[in-house]
Amino acid sequence: MQPRLQIDGLVRFLGGRSVVDDISLSVAAGQVTCLLGPSGCGKSTTLRIIAGVDRQDSGVVRLNGQIVADDTRHLAPETRGVGLMFQDFALFPHLDVAENIAFGLKRGKAADARVAELLERVDLRGYGRKHPHELSGGEQQRVALARALAPRPKVMLMDEPFSGLDNRLRDEIRDATLTVLRDEGTAVLLVTHEPDEAMRMASEIALMRDGRIVQRAAPYNIYNAPVDRKAAAFFSDINCLEGVVRGALTETPFGQFLAPGYEDGTAVDIVFRPQHVRIDFDRGGRGPAPTAEEGTPARGTVERARFIGKESLVEFRMENVDGRGAGALVTATVPAVFLPKPGTVMWLSIRRERCFVFPQK
Ligand SMILES: Nc1ncnc2c1ncn2[C@@H]1O[C@H](COP(=O)(O)OP(=O)(O)OP(=O)(O)O)[C@@H](O)[C@H]1O
Ligand SMILES: [Mg+2]
């Protein structure tokens, strides 16, 4: 199937550097791709180029198979047939809700029907005659969504559209928005700097850093197979043990890890997430037996334990085992309240398949 949106080799120089540096991606109908990355990595600039409010220095933008921007062509934003939704989704204050939604439509029966349909979709039936100042933030946001969808754009570009909403409302609106966009079959490119939002919304995440896409994958895959340490750290706190490769293996307090493809002497990081650390009590100096899944358990001493709501964070100082990983700090998350006293000795195991080995940079 032909993608609704396709960009190839987009480059944009601003302030003497390339803030968008060779970005390529495509989005199919009904798919939500999240452009995710830290502040300043070039997300909005990419979106602005696709919308046509900024121009690339090189590269091609295709919408529905048609070139809308390349070295010679530049279609005006209003002729590109994309829906736009930004953080400051200002509604027209002097127009009522129905007029706001109908703004981009030709007047008539069809427009009225479309407005009624969309009011229903965004769960605002009966709100048509209200004015924006009479609505809550979440309601205004839904009107903005309806307005952007009214002309049936094949592609929707959204830049941090939920960041103006408070936390609880945000989850609700995100899910509602997703449902509406799926029903409409719109191809969506959504910009966010929040990993949780991307994980929740995306069919595919394009992780950006310094103007480049460093990884493109479905949420599950990007979380469980990050390309590098920074990519892993973008989605949660991480633990990191240092090691050196000998014969495609590296030693850690948790036993040997496979490090295939690395030359002897390469310094590597063994990275794992706190929720993949298992904790066991010490039984007279003994811990659980080693298993194929979790390797060798290792001993650590509790340094600090905090309850943070759903779970507890327990920080351990690892014991020196034959000079391997001496003194490394490892954090484990434990569901519910679990607050062992500092100084308590416990056994830690990590799920092998949840560990990543990366070269140290
Ligand atoms: N007109 C400009 N002149 C010079 N530099 C610019 C200009 N516009 C943007 N930049 C720079 O380009 C970089 C990318 O900006 P962009 O707005 O695309 O980032 P972003 O990923 O959307 O960040 P945020 O998450 O904070 O919105 C930033 O470092 C920004 O300072
Ligand atoms: Mg931005």
From TrEMBL:
One of its GO terms (biological process) is quaternary ammonium group transport. Residues 5-235 form the ABC transporter domain. InterPro entries: AAA+_ATPase (IPR003593), ABC_SmlMolc_Importer (IPR050093), ABC_transporter-like_ATP-bd (IPR003439), ABC_transporter-like_CS (IPR017871), ABC_transpr_FbpC (IPR015853), Mo/tungstate-bd_C_term_dom (IPR008995), P-loop_NTPase (IPR027417), Transp-assoc_OB_typ2 (IPR013611). GO terms for molecular function: ABC-type ferric iron transporter activity; ATP binding; ATP hydrolysis activity. Signal peptide: none annotated. CDD domains: ABC_Carb_Solutes_like. It holds the Pfam family ABC_tran. The keyword Ion transport applies. PROSITE patterns: ABC_TRANSPORTER_1 (PS00211), ABC_TRANSPORTER_2 (PS50893). SMART domains: AAA. It comes from the Bacteria. Gene3D superfamilies: P-loop containing nucleotide triphosphate hydrolases. GO terms for cellular component: ATP-binding cassette (ABC) transporter complex. Its EC number is 3.6.3.31. Keywords: ATP-binding, Cell membrane, Hydrolase, Ion transport, Iron, Iron transport, Membrane, Nucleotide-binding, Transport. The keyword Aminoacyl-tRNA synthetase does not apply. This is Spermidine/putrescine import ATP-binding protein PotA. It comes from Jannaschia seosinensis. The lineage of its organism: Bacteria, Pseudomonadati, Pseudomonadota, Alphaproteobacteria, Rhodobacterales.
